[in-house]
Amino acid sequence: MEQFFSDYGLVWIGDVDSNENSESESEENTCNKESCNIKAEGIRMTHTTRSISPNFQKVFSSIDELNIMATEPQIIHTRSGATFKQCELLNLNLYADGIQLENEPFREYSSLSVQEFFHDIEDGYYPTELKGSYPNGVVFK
């Protein structure tokens, strides 16, 4: 369970005892630069905003699999018949502290959008943020 939460930048603190509820009613949800503590229904969760680097080996493997699926030509029907359409290429630059996609600005690994980007890839899906621009997938290079 702890590993699952850790994969998403969360830390499981455990269930809150009923004794703790009565002794500290003034304790509220708190957030600062480092973390957010959220208390609800007897459960306390901490979300850390520390820099999280993705598992590069898994990312590269998943990108290879996604690229294989995306390189299969798609059949496009036209008035005079049909043609094959190749998937578009997208530059993905990985740096020690963040990523940069094609002509977009640099983003750090600690950013929530980058963490979601890599979780989608590690789970074997195209990143959600690219579905609007590339609904049929994209080849990362």
From TrEMBL:
<dbReference type="GO" id="GO:0043161">
    <property type="term" value="P:proteasome-mediated ubiquitin-dependent protein catabolic process"/>
</dbReference>
<dbReference type="Pfam" id="PF08059">
    <property type="entry name" value="SEP"/>
</dbReference>
<protein>
    <submittedName>
        <fullName>SEP domain-containing protein</fullName>
    </submittedName>
</protein>
<dbReference type="InterPro" id="IPR036241">
    <property type="entry name" value="NSFL1C_SEP_dom_sf"/>
</dbReference>
<dbReference type="GO" id="GO:0043130">
    <property type="term" value="F:ubiquitin binding"/>
</dbReference>
<dbReference type="InterPro" id="IPR012989">
    <property type="entry name" value="SEP_domain"/>
</dbReference>
